[in-house]
Amino acid sequence: MTRPGEHHTGQTYLTTDRLVLRRFTADDADLLVGLDADPAVTRFITGGRPTPAEVVRERQLPGILAAYERWDGRFGVFAAHERDSGSFVGWFVLRPEPSGPTSEAELGYRLRRSAWGAGYATEGSAALLHKAFTELDVRLVWAETMALNLRSQRVLEKLGLSVTERLETPDDMLDVEGAEQGGLRYEVTADGWAARSLG
């Protein structure tokens, strides 16, 4: 269903009180280019450098679309829109490693700066955790973030994930602010999530 102001119609993956998460389509490159053009959005990813449009069009978007095929639409990167306005707020990801078991999945998100502080990161991620553990037979969800990225850490902790290890900064991120502090891996198991949900 297309909502007012929403011109991109990909298959809906899930809905929350305020968000619709849907599959990206081949026509969505401009959404991704625009998102990564904001240096505040990519601060802890590329050091604030925008992702070149040709990289989005030739590598990133085709990879996102191929992943829907690989996992029969069960996992992937999903565009997030406000339910009321239809405006694009960013994306969420729930996916296994390319060659890993589907019982373990990565959780992540990237939101437009205009959507920060509204609770969307927590709302969308909580819905993905629920789907992972109740519908998709996932046993472990993990996420990684830079040690300096306190905003993301607060979201993960609110969702019930906890730190399992400290990470070295990847070579391609050594010029990112806080690279010397490395990163953190967070995890939550299906049992841990269920116990917390019941509590």
UniProtKB/TrEMBL annotation:
UniProt keyword Transferase, yes or no: yes
GO molecular function: acyltransferase activity, transferring groups other than amino-acyl groups
UniProt keyword annotations, A-Z: Transferase
Domain N-acetyltransferase: 19-191
Keyword Transferase (UniProt): yes
Pfam families per the UniProt record, alphabetical: Acetyltransf_3
InterPro entries: Acyl_CoA_acyltransferase, GNAT_dom, N-acetyltransferase
Entry superkingdom: Bacteria
PANTHER family, alphabetized: GNAT FAMILY, PUTATIVE (AFU_ORTHOLOGUE AFUA_3G00765)-RELATED-RELATED (PTHR43792), N-ACETYLTRANSFERASE DOMAIN-CONTAINING PROTEIN (PTHR43792:SF1)
Protein name: RimJ/RimL family protein N-acetyltransferase
